[in-house]
């Protein structure tokens, strides 16, 4: 069932069509290749997936550089030799560690989770509205921290020039645990991520997609900048309408447009984005990258070419959808959700959130 958006959602679903053409530059990472199985890929065992190969820029480099140093010089060379309307960036796309919503979905099973339990704030043992990390999720983020330090020490990797993070609690916690305390190379950008609304998870009727207030977020990490225009309360989630993949891709393209072509952009080519499985999938679609579903806590870099086009921006509207759900726990089903006969599906919120 398709519905028009409420006024609070219009600004997100009606956006200016991107005047930037994005493309994933393949041949540099294992995750670019169709033969790489995303379900078993371990970024910590594969040097972030960076392929051991030579580059055209190698002839301009000193000897005894690591693979990551040589790759950084190649990206710099791309930017030096490209026209003003083209630039290259390496996006480190990191999925948050396991949250309580992930654990709850595993416990209840996906069909029952989607049509009933996910619309609640939690149960008697756990809260999953704007979920926090589980102990396992904390461990996954600390694994990322240790691996970044290993890459700094052994590969002399160029650490991110800019950091961005989704405003949901699990991503804020993940970014903090991943990057705080690293012994960064001299001259590196300090870790002070920009909290960015448009890098949040795909917005469904699940309460785990309902972010907390700006005040709450600022209190958690008072030194982290929050982007201009960030509303006090979540104006995008209402527990009734769900973002379609088309609407989310517009959102992702808009967010990427705010990352590329800034001041000194070509010299600041490494960017970290701590986000979510669904949002990273959307970003990859916008980039034209192959589908690559990240496990919780995983990180993949992607080399991106962005080109400003001459076309005029046009307003694009993509409707959201209403998602019916049960009002009582569903009948057990392996492949689909079946509501009890006395509890017909509804499209009104079961929980009000925060």
Automatic annotation (TrEMBL):
This protein's UniProt keywords: Signal
Signal peptide: 1-17
Designated name of the protein: GPI anchored protein
GO terms under cellular component: cytoplasm
Coiled-coil residue windows: none
Pfam families: His_Phos_1 (PF00300)
Entry GO MF terms: phosphatase activity
